[in-house]
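Hey,
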Amino acid sequence: MRILIATAGSRGDVAPFTGLGARLAAAGHQVALATHTTFADSVRAAGLEFRPLPVDPRAELASERGQRLLRAGPGPLGVLRLVGLARSFMPALGAGIAAAAEPGVDLLLTTSTTADLGQVVAEAAGIPLIALHLQPLSPTREFAPAVTGTKSLGGAGNLLAGYAVQAAVDHLFAPAVRGLRRQLDLPQRSVADARQNRTVLHGFSPLVVPRPADWCPSLHITGYWWPRPDPDWQPPYRLVDFLAAGPPPVYIGFGSLVVPDPERLTATVLAAVRAARVRVVLQAGWSGLTVPGDGAEAVDDDDVLAIGDTPHDWLFPRMAAVVHHAGAGTTAATLRAGTPSVPVPAQLDAPFWSARLARLGTTAGPVPLAQLTPVRLATAIRQTLDNPHHRHCARALSTALTAEDGPARVLTAIDRLTG
């Protein structure tokens, strides 16, 4: 079967589908992954065909609109800012998905960022569609909308808020959907109507987010889809030497978070490192963290190592703790590694995942980016390291996750839908 996976966003929105795509290919399917050009190498390294989608996600997040999203922080305003940012390039994204499907597709797999446009493409091609979500986005009484960063509003309040967010997103995405339907000569149909009875598979563990009892039968939780390791990757010698030179360090990196002042964030982090008295692996990521060579914020090279992109599945198990931005992908990687963490949530679903980590016992608690100071970060690092409960919980959950096989459940859903 010819399968096209279409996903848009940051690295965390792409990496899980390299592993899932490779598993589908190993089962005999012909798999292509359509996403942004910046991720082409990782797609091809997984043995998948790459098909391009428009937009540079890092440039968009670094733009004034992207920085307004960061300043909005978690909450409903952040959702509206995200949709407003996306709305400017959604028509091009829809055309890109349609072009990616032109070589011929038997099944379209979409993500939360591409599902509504992908539904139009699937309808035009007369093929089935399955949505693959990395966050729980469907309304439920059991928790507030995952992307709003709000605490529980009670059963009725959570459900109402979930439908309100869904309606707002539908309204803002509707123009791009209408335009794509016209482009593909399809009759007009509302976003909400097209979503009815759509099969949605969620790529996280029910041990982390149990399936809400009030979800409809078409919503499923499969377990995680882990990124495909690059078989040619080798750790640089200086990283191996650094790890061997002392006790396990703390990882600090904020992934796809683009901040307006990388130097200030770096200074905060390095001051916390000194106060916490830990060795640190510092990953630049899209936040641009760097290690100054001199001046008041300088740190001895024996204590801090700056690195570039390094696979989390190799790095995180070697860390004493992970300080991260609490994106869905990085959160999953810390749980897989069995390493306690210090989440630093900034926007959208990050507070949701931070709260889950706290509930699971793998962290002493989050330090929101808006409240980040050297003292608060140093204190959180020490609390996480000094309490063995957090490492015990992290290791126990990691062991339990190894028994799950998320891709197998995706294959079963595909067979059931297309068999």
